[in-house]
Amino acid sequence: MKKTPAGWERITPTVFYDDAAKAIDWLCRVFGFEVRLKVEGEGGRIEHSELTFGDGMIMAAAAGGKSSRPVPLPCASPRTLGGVNTQSLAVFVDDADAHCAQARAAGAKIIEEPVTTDYGQEYWSDRTYRSEDLEGHQWWFIERVRDGSKSAEVERRRLGGDVVTMQPIGIIRGPHKDASAIPKGLGARHTAEGTIDLRAELEEGLLDIEGFSHLLIIWVFDRSEGYELTGRPPSDDRPHGVFATRSPYRPNPLGLTVVELLRREGSRLHVRGIDMLDGTPVLDIKPYLSSVPEETLKRGWLDEAEARRAKSS
Q1: Under a CB-based contact definition with an 8 Å cutoff, are residues 257 and 275 in contact?
Q2: Helices within the chain (DSSP H only)
Q3: Which of 30, 93, 159, 186 gets the highest tally of CB atoms within 10 A of its CB?
């Protein structure tokens, strides 16, 4: 299948309300959705909206009324059907109990209190609660407590190969809170200082690391979504393949950075050369060793881009 448009899942549900404008405000205030787009028609009628929750999205629209379509879509709110639902919606949350408490305090009707259900070692364990919105739509909010062996097998088959699971060994602490603050493009220099805070139980693995001046840090672009096989990097106005750039939008969103080791304090490494966001997960640390003579290194399109910039300046 072709890649879906940016910001869109392959399947996106639409939820219909008699008063869609009021419902959108309610969903944001009570359940924590955010409005990405809202299109109003005659008299303020909601013709289309896009509401996001993390990386998920629903559309909300007005039920009934006029339609410009050759064959109008038959749709109704559960409120006009005596509370009957033809579907329910399931949303994964980080903390089912906290989300339930927030929704209850904001006025949601809780149909089923949070409960943990274990489907067996091969499958998974979820903590779930059920709520009803202001017009009767049923919502399930789910916190995944444990994945099972079948979950990994399903994901492996979906990807057509083996699934590699990794756990961060530590976290980056640095000054960059937003990607726009990180120097990019030709001639960019990364001199920011920060720390790599290793998990305490892994401290022994840092034995003798002080003897190296520079380290290779393998980390995760944990805030990038999706990937693009070609793109225009900040260093050039021409497209290049993702594997010929350092773009964060990669099939496997891994980053690689060389930092200077300033000092070590227990399981904390003080380094210079941070080009990651604060809070970035670290997967591995290796000593930087290069045996490639500088005169044999080739910089590909970067040399061409620098030459074009020098010629035009």
Answers
A1: yes
A2: 20-26, 96-105, 149-159, 301-312
A3: 93
Q: Specify whether the CB–CB gap between 174 and 197 falls below 8 A.
A: no
Which of 221, 259, 223 is CA-nearest to residue 242? Answer: 221
Range in 105-114, 141-150, 154-163, 265-274 with the lowest mean pLDDT: 154-163
CA distance 103 to 126: 19
- Residue 255 has phi, psi (to 5 degrees) of -115, 155
Residue 137 CA to residue 87 CA, distance in Å, equals: 8
Report d(CA 260, CA 272) in Å as an integer.
Answer: 5
Residue 53 CB: number of other CB atoms within 10 A? Answer: 17
Q: Across residues 112-134, what is the average pLDDT?
A: 92
Which is nearest to 155 in space by CA: 171, 140, 144?
Answer: 144
User: Quick one: pLDDT at residue 160?
Assistant: 64
**Residues 220-247 pLDDT 10s:** 999 888 888 998 888 888 899 999 998 9
Is the pTM above the cut of 0.70?
A: no
DSSP string, 45-62: -EEEEEEEETTEEEEEEE
**DSSP letter assigned to residue 27:** I
